[in-house]
Amino acid sequence: MNREAVKVPLMCVAAGAWTFLAWRLAGMPDPGGMGRLLPGAWVLCGLLSAGRRKVRGLGAAVTAFTGFTLFWRCCSWGHPGAVAASVAGLFHQCFQTAGERRGLIRGILPAALLMAAVVPFTSDEVRFSEIAAKIAGADSFHFSQRPGDPAPGDSHHTPVYPLLLAPGAAFGPPGIRAMGLLPVMVGALLLKELLKRTGAGNPGGIAAAAVLLMPGFTLLGPAMTGWAAAAALCAFALLPGGWRGMVGTALLGFFLVAVKMRYAGAAAGMALVWLLENTRGIRTRLLILPALAAILAGLFVLDGSLLGGVLFRARYGNPETLMLVRMNLFHRPGVLLREALHMMLDCEAGILPKAPWVLAVPAGLSLLRRADRTVFRRLALPGILYAAVHLLWTGEAWHGLPAPAARVFIPMLPLFAAGVSRVWSRRTTGLLLALSLGVAALTAAVPMARFNMAQGSDNLAAALDVRGLCVSMVRPDGAVLAAWALLAVAAVLLCRLNHVIGLRTVLLAGAVLLAVPRYPGRLQAEEAEPDHVHGAGFYPAHPDPSLRQFWFFSRERLLMLDHPFQCVRVEGPGTLGLRVCGGPGAVLLVGGDTLEIESNLLPMPAAYIPMRGSRTVSDRPENREFILYNRPIPPGPVEIRVPRGGSPVYMDWLEVAR
Amino acid sequence: MDITGRKTEWALLLAGLAGWLVTVLFRGFSLEWAALPLAFVAVASMSDVRLMVPGFLILLAGTASGSGSAACAVAGLFVLVRSDDFRARVPALAATAVWFLANPSPGAVLLTACFTGICLVQKRKVRYALAGVLALPALAFMLPTPGMDREPIVARCFLGEGYARWETPPLTLGTPGAVLAPPGPVRFTMKLEVECGGVRDSLPVAMVAAGETSLCLPGGIHRLTLEMDGSDSVFVFPLRDHRPFIHPVVHVGAEAFW
Predict the structure, then answer these.
(1) Is residue B194 part of a domain?
(2) Under CATH, which architecture does the A523-608+615-657 domain have?
(3) By residue range, what is the domain housing residue B160?
(4) Which end of chain A has fewer CB atoms within 10 angstroms, the N or the C?
(5) Alpha-carbon distance B127 to nearest alpha carbon in chain A (angstroms)
(6) What residues of A are in contact with residue B245 (Cβ under 8 Å)?
(7) In chain B, what residues touch A60 (CB-CB under 8 Å)?
């Protein structure tokens, strides 16, 4: 037997065996879950990498894993760090296998199976499974009504995506998960073909890296419609030109809309590209627009009369939604722009904190545009239109949280991958990919990091104890936003210049800058440790985000004091600062002092047109003005509580200035 | 630009020092924080881009809580084994040693001596071999772990009229115990569900102490009802020390009525 040919598989299997053994020697938690699945994935990776000659980065991953395992009892990072180091090493090996001839599926499979095994089976996936079970005649899933459904027993989801999953329904959740891998694999193969066509070196490796480092992959594994949309967009970029391509464009466009109405922007982008490529003269193009409008109207009628509104009316085509589009466009363009910025930078839902490699995309896209304008147009227009229409259509709920964070960007995968492929070999890109690998691995290691509530605190940042540094759309802070925006712009420019030392300096400077606490001593009340808070609950009450219950109207979470036994403890001496609100009769006892907390209801903005005629906002804490209190406190512990029979008081933050 | 140039080294050193000073300025002096600039210099001295992952961890550690210095020690360990440059291995060794000095443990001296030996070896394969040989006993006896003298964590309490419940993360070898503070100055009935596991024998896994009562619980699910005074807290302590092939864990669910 050729020794070289078995070297890599043996080393991967050895890495898996060491992971298994070290986990048990160190007594780390979850030996029966991740402690078995991760070594199993390593072994599978080894078996599937047969024939590979070179191994890179394996020693680094094993060393980092061992280091974190040694220290896991000493710090809160220890256990997640060990898991993340091993997952990062596994992903890195997957990229290398995927770069081999016919290696793409072999490369992706170990990571995909690992994620499919560890990600919870929740919400939309359950709904798709229910519909798939209905289609397949299996009875392992039960149907229940949810907000947005047209009628009991009738989902607002179309049956197109569940149709793909239906063959697996008889085998329960594992079968559904297995079928959900198909769109991922097809998408990855099409992406590889696309990258090959654009002349990228190592198309398999790039395709695998793009798929595995896309936030959705470690967040909800393969069970999302976004992967089917990404596959359709790849296929569109590969279509032949001319009238032959029209049939393909129409089919892919209808497929996208039928999978989920959210992808209508991408479908419109496809139609626009076809128009630009196949028609000449402004008059001809303008004539085709009424034809498209007629098709849309026909779809609307078909949806209303035959499909019972499942496709369009139940969720996206009703008067309220159209009103929201009008509001977004004409009444609050500033808010829309801010949300677009948060799409990039928000720590809970934005793309850049979850996948920093996207920072290399602009530099690559400008090169792609010069090299192959057709592919550039076919990727850029649908991708950008998808994001724009999505933002316009859903307004401030574009993120869909607490659904797994950043999943809405998956349809933009072909655009991102084609962009990064052009600057793949640059060291700056390597650095950004390494950062992304770290984030993806940490997300895989901290299960709750997959879900966020859009309440101002990212679960991964909370696990790493760096919450204060994050950009938040519901807890806006201009200075933090500006710092990160500057960092992002600098990183994009440095990618363009391929200047790795400069990027390191920028990252270090940014980290030091952000490390400086701008409000020393200030604490978000809901984030205060239990040592300081006794008995107080949260407003809104926090459901388990992994259940992905609807969380419309994202808002900052507040600490609620509504019982005399509840209290917040601070340590004096100093000046206590509080930002609080409360309804009629709300009083707060601070040590021996009594503070009147009653605050006014906010006036309704003049531009708002209420549907029921009343111009008074509903009496909820978020609709009341917040009051700032500053009060000196004596040395020693001071308790803040509400009196018996008092109204609830809602606390935003507190600080003790020495 | 040559990253290994002398000017760059000085720049890295100064940047590391600046980071440390900022940390000391805002978070107070602690010896273990010296691991941050040392590990930064060690990692940045390596020219391999892939190694920026531990570098990134160090940057994060600089902004995080005290436990971030342990991440710096891990990064130091990483460079110690990986780097072929002796000038990078020295600050890496120092970063690891500083952490051990700040957090003394029974095996600290032995491990530091071994790390020094590894630092002096020039051949990477030999360093890997030495580290591999060292890793087995270090993991089996958990040599770097300092004494578990930390205070128990406080369980988060949510209370309403006549009812309270507590939430606490699972207690493992890395958590010293949990304390469930009384809801208020009233007599109350507490219902505890303690789930102990991760062991292969029937010896006690956790101890529940409340007022005058203490109970040692073996593996399994235990449902306890306790009549408590308004001044009594409930403590739950894992009883097992580290031993290879056992993963003791205690899940605590608690609610109270009055």
Answers:
(1) yes
(2) Sandwich (2.60)
(3) 153-257
(4) N
(5) 11
(6) 24-25, 27
(7) 50-51, 78, 82
